[in-house]
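May I ask you to comment on the folded chain given beneath this request?
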Amino acid sequence: MEVLNVTYRIRPIALCSGIRDQSQWTYRWNIGQKVLSACYVWYLEGSDPLTIIDAGAQSEHFTNPEFPMSPYRSLEEGLRTYGLQPHDVKQVIVTHLHSDHIALAHKYPNAVFIVQQKELEFAKNPHIFLAVDYNSALFDGLNYLLLDGDQEVMPGVRVLLTPGHSPGGQ
């Protein structure tokens, strides 16, 4: 039996922040309660292939004038903090395909995007009430590794199907 001694560090890369309505996360609860929100990419330091979690979004991707987001740093600046560039990223674990998690996907030309099959199917044809959360132009044409449920995607890294916020969240 081979025992792998793998150590990862999760490195947050904040891209933008702003005040948003809490009900965006607690469906139909806490409507009108304002909370500070931020958009992150998470670099999995020590990963092979080089992996991030979520592709990210910048402040300009948030178009609701009632809840503007302010830029913090560009994706390139954030990755540069760790000596990386977008083309270095080989794998993106996508928690779900809402625009704020996938808007910058096309900046990673060498990446495979790990997504639940259920999430991609729903995102391509969302329910009318949820369509505002999905923009197929942001995720069409990506190189996908589609999963069906819980799965180890590299030594010591396992994604878990967590439907709720979206049908194929992980």
Notes: The longest helix spans residues 117-124. The mean pLDDT is 93.
